[in-house]
Task: structure prediction
Amino acid sequence: MTGNKTIAALVLAAGYSSRMGGLKPLLPLGQSTALEEVVRRFRQAGIADIRVVTGHRAEDIAPVLDRLGVRQIFNPEYDKGMFSSIRAGLGTLGPGIEAFFLLPVDIPLIRPGTIAALVQARRQHNADVIYPCLEGRRGHPPLISTACVADLPQDQAGGLRAYLAQHDGPVLDLEVLDEFILNDFDTPEDYHRLQLIATKDDIPTERECRAFWTRYHVPQNVIAHSRLVADLAKTLGLHLNRAGFRLDIDLLAAAGLLHDLAKGQRHHARIGAEILDWLGFGRVARIVAAHTDMPQKDLSLDESDLIYLVDKFAAGDRIVQLEERLAGSWIRFAGRPDILQAVARRFEYAQAIKDHMEEVLGVPVEDVIRRVEGDLPIASLDEPRQIYLIRPGAGRHSENGRRYIGQMDLPLSDVGISQVESSRDSHAHPA
Result:
């Protein structure tokens, strides 16, 4: 992306990090540190003017900023809190800066695509404040017009958030596909969680997958199918990993949930892959692109092979045999020999994947699926499903009046047997 010289980024890194036991900006994260991750992501999104407000242990942070070529703004009053650091940063923004991002350094994994989307929204709507949101919840970093903070007071109860809440200019909430706008680290537990996520930030989380479904208007029947594919892929992936493979279960889950993102459109696999690739999810995009046609690679039982196979085991939200899926396609495309030939090749490849997997696992794939089928959250859309909770029928108790709770199965009394039969005959009564 090209640099945007009229929009700056203010990164707040002046705090004490008292609950962390280490200096937040310099804690290892991803392939570098939290501060370096923030700078890299802003630059990748085209923001060239990045300024970091320092305070506590500024002398330790300064060499990193020098190496990165990022401007340091020292806040001598950092002990007064974040609002003082915001004022220190704003004091350096000249008339050439029309707007700025504001980001605490402990929210370091913002996707570059989110930053770019906020800039694009400002160009389109010219709002004074634009908040990134996920499922209606505001996160960081807001993109703020410098004009709307020109009269920022020396002190403000509730900080900048309270000040902006009083602003009567145009404000925009922008829905983004980025859970990281909500993920900070104030505690060692938070930090450990972000460390794990940082190694896989090119894989959308389940919450982000749900946001994809909403943005691209994915129908409920396709969502049900996608959930089934994801669950089956994770199950088989775990079995293969126990056999010595190293499949990425998170990647399998995301690819399963999003493989039919553009379902209903012509060449939906390619279109869905293009959407994902543009948003920075390249690994998922490659699997989505390959899930309908035979991959141009050797069979290796990787994530794309597994999604390709599992998609054939799922007809809508039902688990079926490969032969049943093939028969359905045979009927659907009767009279179209060109399509039937392609269908036959696809199922031959699926069968080859299945054969290879069974050779590795030593059991039929159907046996693995059958063992876990009852635990899969399959919700049929063909007809409503009702779940009944039925209390046990009356039991036969001993003469001494003792009661046994949770220790053993007591035989039913004549009354209890009558109750069970009545429930069965009437298809049960909801509890």
